[in-house]
Design brief:
The complex is a heterodimer of chains A (405) and B (538). Chain A has 405 residues and is of the alpha/beta class. Chain A contains twelve helices and 17 strands. In chain A, strands 1, 2, 9, 10, 11, 12 and 17 form a seven-stranded mixed beta sheet that branches. In chain A, α1 runs parallel beside α10. Chain A is globular, with a radius of gyration of 23 Å. Chain B has three domains: 162 residues, FAD/NAD(P)-binding domain (3-Layer(bba) Sandwich); 148 residues, 2-Layer Sandwich (D-Amino Acid Oxidase, Chain A, domain 2); 100 residues, no CATH class. In chain B, a hairpin with a 5-residue loop joins β12 and β13. The chains are: A alpha/beta (405), B alpha+beta (538). At the A-B interface, α6, β13 and α11 of A face α7, α16 and α17 of B.
Chain lengths: 405, 538
């Protein structure tokens, strides 16, 4: 018997679980696959709170500004690498070398140093997959027009045989090398050498390093005392699966386990056991290692994701279903629009909730399960991609669910 | 202004147009083909990819049936690389009218279509997804044909024979000197440069656009635009073409292609060839119909829906009858000599017809042109092979350098271009990496096709390589392919318009089937392009 069972280990689930564990709850996370953060760049968007909180049913309207602020502070406390002024949008590179804005960034992602650079060195690890130095070079040149952009290829002996066979090296594979003692030493040596050969004045040359996960437990080395002879470096996120997103998931997981939490991965929830009145959840049935196991808890947090994460499944004739409790969903009748990158109504599909994140019938507003809370992408009335608030909503609703559970 | 000269100007780069271009090149006639988009961008690639045995027309249209079975045989012989001789079944279900089957058998026999009966038990063993409501099953020589490949093979062969074609050249006016045509005038839609193409004869092979081109010459022509919608499934649901044995109707043909199945069609009269957008209602309707033949259809992943506009010939019919539907109109073709009909000498329109008989239509049109020009060389397209010569050692090397499946696909798609791609991979093994994993398209292949003079858009690369046509519908390959479209200096490093237009084209086909795993894939695509790359609102 747990105090809290969290379903899902994306950003919302991990945040909820951590908050509940920090409050002394005994917490179990059950997760079907891997964290959806593996597909995230590591840069988190909060979006325009004031504007989004006006939208009917938007999660920001439900939780309020103070919850978002507390959630962000809580998150930064756990991941010091994300320190900084959380409210303001900061520039971060895209994997194609253009610039976008995000509010909550690992400091090593901040592209601000490039704005004053005279010379940008794009480091190009040989064979890195989904990395296009020619395109990035031109885009960096357009975004930072006062700088000269050069490409410096990095040939690593460890990957020579990959290279000879023409194999692409996924960012996650490169990351394992960079995280090793040998890889860390190689980066430091490189930065020292580049700093030493700098033609422009020191500080005017900045390196761009693709696909490297930032160190989230510490301040980045560039800011440390004694790092003066190292060339400043801006990290560039990669296409998924991305080391920075994986590093964030790993940091949150480590912290959760250290707080005494338990995590069952590869465990799909196949059903729920409702209490006699039907108004609360007594337990869930989890299929783990081929067996169905019944797990009981005082309260449950549903953070199983939306259409992408698998928490919501849409069948032919566009009928949407919530996969764990079969909760009734808000689903728009007008399903899609022609402009792919514009607003898509189907993205608003999800569970409606009360101010304490408990599920409601979307039409009658009747309360459904009193000890279940819903967080993240399973919620209705928001779209992380057009509203640029995926990080903020997941943190705020995850935090609140963990606070109340 | 750009000027061109040829004996014959062909308008339209679909199967008929390129077929004619090649036929004329074999007869030694100098011809030029002008196409407003990319080759095969219209109806020639927007169909089920069925090479008819003629059996579908056996009852209603014996002439079309006989033409089909003859052309089917010819194409199997001259273009084996574009045809998969899967065979096809006509399946009578318990609910169907047995007397139709009798009429159908008689029609097949009269048209010379070989038919062999298969027992229902055996049929269900061979096609496990087939309904158990099967009463009778007949095998005919239906086949799957790759419309893109066949069009490209014709264009390539014609070019080798000295003919030329210009894509993205839109004809605006057919020019006349007195009563005779003298050429055409139009615009290169990419550069907006005007062009003038002079020739003695002009052939209008623009399919669903034929009425517009005839009007540009001052002639009137009635073409019925009949929209047909199809669904592409993510797996091979059957190993052979499966038709329902009854009066031809909606949703009664399944055609397996490589790793997918195309299922169709619908038939709806529309006002313009531009109305080729599949709808939610059509997708739902097709799914409900298909379940009669394959009961578990609804559980299968649909990748996309697409629609083509059939150009049906209407001139020799009484039009305006209420409730007339596309299937009631003949699928036969007609050559209209505007000299005889409208007093415009040297202008021919080809209307109606179907993909399977493209070669025959081209032959008849070429006969007309040859007679006008006093050329006596006979048609040779039924004998001369379209299969490209690919050096044996290049194929062997490709199979050594690439996974077997990827090598075969590359050879099939690149044809005579294979040795060049193989050489590129030998020079840099990284080019063997799969840029499009769903359709197994290598970096070398995309690079080579993107560098072609007639490749201007990502969609052109798609038609030539199948890039972005598989399961992920462009989620990953789109950003990977962008780098190769930059060969022209003027193009920006991140051509947002190009990317947006490619994603919107893909989305057009996903929208009607936006559910299940494909919708999940769509969310991942949105995450990449809107979240990670922040391309929204640009």
């Amino acid at each position: 018997m747990w105090d809290v069972i969290v379903i899902g280990e994306g950003l919302a689930g991990l945040t909820a679980a951590l908050r509940a564990a920090q409050r002394g709850r005994e917490v179990l996370i059950v997760s079907e696959g891997s964290s959806s953060l593996l597909h995230a760049s590591g840069a988190l968007n909060l979006g325009d709170f004031a504007q989004l909180a006006q939208l009917p049913g938007h999660p920001y309207q439900i939780v309020g500004r103070h919850v978002l602020d507390r959630a962000v502070a809580f998150f930064q406390d756990i991941c010091p690498g994300y320190a900084g002024d959380s409210g303001a949008a900061k520039p971060v590179l895209t994997p194609l070398g253009t610039v976008r804005l995000a509010e909550l960034l690992p400091r090593a992602f901040q592209a601000t140093p490039l704005q004053t650079a005279k010379r940008i060195i794009l480091l190009a690890p040989q064979g890195l997959r989904d990395f296009f130095p020619d395109v990035i070079r031109v885009n960096l040149g357009q975004a930072f027009s006062s700088a000269r952009v050069e490409v410096k290829e990095l040939a690593l002996p460890s990957f020579r045989s990959w290279q000879e066979q023409g194999l692409g090296i996924a960012p996650m594979v490169y990351q394992r090398y960079w995280a090793s003692a040998e890889g860390r030493a190689a980066i430091e040596r490189l930065r020292r050498d580049l700093a030493a050969e700098g033609v422009a004045g020191f500080g005017e040359t900045v390196a761009v390093f693709p696909g490297l996960a930032p160190d989230l437990d510490r301040e980045p080395p560039g800011d440390e005392a004694g790092a003066k002879d190292l060339l400043p470096m801006v990290l560039m996120p990669s296409f998924p699966p991305a080391p920075a997103g994986a590093a964030l998931a790993a940091a949150l997981e480590r912290r959760f386990l250290r707080s005494g939490g338990e995590l069952w991965r590869g465990s799909r929830v196949v059903g729920a056991v409702l209490g006699s009145s039907g108004s609360y959840c007594a337990g869930i049935i989890v299929r783990s290692k081929g067996k169905d196991i019944s797990l009981r808890a005082r309260s449950f947090i549903l953070a199983s994701g939306g259409i992408l994460g698998g928490g919501i499944v849409v069948g032919p004739a566009r009928s949407a279903e919530e996969t764990v409790f079969g909760l009734p969903l808000y689903a728009p009748a007008d399903w899609t629009r022609p402009d792919f990158l514009g607003t898509q109504p189907f993205a608003q599909t999800g569970v409606s909730v009360d101010p304490e994140l408990r599920p409601l019938d979307p039409y009658s507003r009747a309360r459904l399960l009193t000890n279940v809370r819903v967080a993240g992408r399973t919620l209705a009335h928001w779209d992380p991609w057009t509203e640029h608030c995926g990080g903020g909503v997941s943190l705020a609703t995850g935090y609140l669910a963990g606070e109340l559970a | 202004m750009q000027r061109y000269t040829a004996q014959v100007i062909i308008i339209g780069g679909g199967a008929t147009g390129v077929g004619l271009l090649r036929d004329l090149s074999l007869r030694g006639v100098a011809a030029l083909l002008l196409e407003q988009g990319d080759l095969a961008h219209g109806t020639s690639s927007r169909f089920h990819g069925l090479l008819h045995s003629g059996a579908r027309y056996a009852v209603k249209d014996p002439l079309a049936a006989a033409e089909c079975v003859r052309e089917n045989e010819i194409l199997n012989k001259v273009a084996p690389h574009c045809v998969r001789a899967t065979g096809g079944w006509f399946v009578e279900l318990a609910a169907d009218d047995p007397s139709y089957t009798q009429a159908w058998l008689a029609g097949c026999s009269q048209a010379g279509i070989p038919v062999q009966e298969i027992s229902p038990v055996e049929a269900c063993r061979m096609e496990p997804m087939l309904t158990r409501q099967v009463r009778r099953v007949f095998e005919v020589p239906d086949a799957a044909v790759d419309g893109f490949q066949l069009v490209w093979a014709n264009a390539r062969a014609a070019a080798e024979g000295g003919a030329s074609y210009k894509t993205y050249h839109r004809v605006e006016k057919v020019l006349r000197r007195g009563h005779a045509v003298s050429g055409v005038y139009g615009e290169n839609v990419l550069t907006h440069e005007k062009f003038l193409a002079e020739g003695q004869l002009v052939v209008n092979a623009t399919g669903a656009w034929a009425a517009q081109i005839a009007a540009a010459a001052g002639a009137s022509l009635e073409v019925i635009c009949d929209k047909g919608t199809l669904l592409a499934f993510n797996q091979r649901l059957c190993q052979r073409v499966i038709n329902r044995l009854r009066v031809p109707g909606d949703g009664d043909i399944f055609v397996p292609h490589e790793t997918i199945t195309i299922f169709g069609t619908t038939s709806e009269l529309v006002q313009s060839p531009r109305e080729n957008e599949p709808t939610d209602e059509e997708a739902d309707y097709l799914l409900s119909l298909g379940a009669d033949l394959l009961p578990h259809l609804a559980a299968c992943r649909v990748i996309r829906a697409f629609a083509g506009v059939r150009p049906l010939h209407a001139d020799d019919r009484e039009l305006g009858k209420d409730g007339e539907e596309g299937r009631e109109v003949s699928r036969n073709f007609a050559l209209i000599d505007h000299g005889e009909r409208d007093g415009i000498e040297g202008l021919l329109s080809i209307v109606g017809g179907k993909f399977t008989t493209y070669r025959l239509m081209a032959e008849k049109a070429a006969d007309w042109a040859a007679a006008k020009l006093g050329v006596t060389a006979p048609c040779r397209t039924a004998e001369v092979s379209l299969a490209p010569h690919i050096p044996e050692d290049a194929v062997k090397t490709a199979k050594r350098l690439l996974p077997a499946g990827a090598a075969e696909k590359m050879v099939a798609r690149l044809g005579p271009g294979t040795p060049k791609a193989v050489e590129a991979i030998q020079g840099d093994p990284r080019k063997a990496q799969l840029l499009c994993e769903c359709e197994m398209v290598t970096v070398a292949e995309v690079e080579q096709v993107a560098a072609d003079g007639d490749t201007h858009h990502l969609a052109d690369v798609r038609r030539k390589t199948r890039l972005g046509m598989g399961t992920c519908q462009g989620a990953f390959c789109t950003y990977r392919a962008l780098q190769f479209l930059r060969h022209a200096e003027a193009k920006p490093a991140l051509p947002v318009d190009e990317l947006t237009s490619f994603l919107n084209q893909r989305w057009k086909g996903i929208r009607p089937v936006a559910w299940g795993p494909q919708l999940r894939e769509t969310e991942l695509t949105r995450a990449i392009y809107l979240g990670l790359l922040d391309l929204g609102g640009n």
